[in-house]
What we know:
It is built from three helices and 22 strands. With 343 residues, it is mainly beta.
Amino acid sequence: MGLLFMAGCSEDPVRGGGEPEVEGPEDCVAGEIYNTVLKRCVTSNLDAGREDASGGEDASGEDTSGEDASGGEDASVEEDVFVDDGCDEDRDGARSIACGGADCDDRDFRRSPDRAESCDSIDNNCDGQVNEGISCTFFAHSGDTLYTIDPFKRVAEAVGEVPGLQDIDTHPDGTLYGVTREELYRFDGARRRWTMVGTFPARIEDANGLAIDSAGVGYVTSGDSLYEVDLGTARTQLIGVVGETFYSSGDCVVNKRDSLFMTSKAEDQPDTLVLVNRMTGEGVELGSVGFSRVFGLTAGWDALYGLTSEGQLITLDSRTGQGTLVHTFEGLRWYGAASTPAR
Ligand SMILES: [Ca+2]
Ligand SMILES: [Ca+2]
Ligand SMILES: [Ca+2]
Ligand SMILES: [Ca+2]
């Protein structure tokens, strides 16, 4: 995969409502799960664990009787030996409805009455509702309004204002920070308003990307350079030049593995995704996103999301940069994005 939309291709096939040729859940092999946002099979640690569990590592399970499978006790035989009678095709332990069971989807092990609901596009616990009782949103903002976006339900909800920010990000302690081209802001949750932390030095002329890593270190991208920013004072220090061919198009983001990504713009071309070394600032181009003016980036639920000035919500392949349209919010211009503490 990753070849769905070659560089420069239009997103029209998706926008038009027609589904591109994608893998389906049935294409996934053992050890993979079907990611409905990315529309492809992805490696699943969870799946691997489950396979192991059903493959004979029952000692780690809840079963306190007969940990020795060789004992031939009735209770453990059922646990240890999978009998393929066609009634549990996805081997999630729940029998299909056709066989009198309660598995609402016997071809998807992520859906079973025994599973907990989790953030994705499906009803995991078979109660008929998707993502009920859990919050699956990240922050995004337009020129003056802060929103939460649910990428699975594809809805945006206005939740506040922003003081003309270029980008935002969330500190591990939950505090939301934002940058204008020249200033650092912090959201004061108690007073429900943004307060200015400080002004950047004059050499930072176009701060438009803000990222905070898992240790709480702040980064600002401005033009072709990466800076470390002190979130308490707005003092900055040049880490390095990302590359002379790169120019920040509007955001940078640190994912769960603390990789720093930035979108870079080039004249008359779609943005590219750049992997940036947090120590040296040096950037490596991963590939074309296929979308322009990607002003917001955020990482969540094992995906990299992008937001454009055209109101588009996309996912980006973190290896190739390739963007895929998820939804277009008509009439909205996205500037920046940030994870929410809940995520
Ligand atoms: Ca099943
Ligand atoms: Ca199932
Ligand atoms: Ca549900
Ligand atoms: Ca779900």
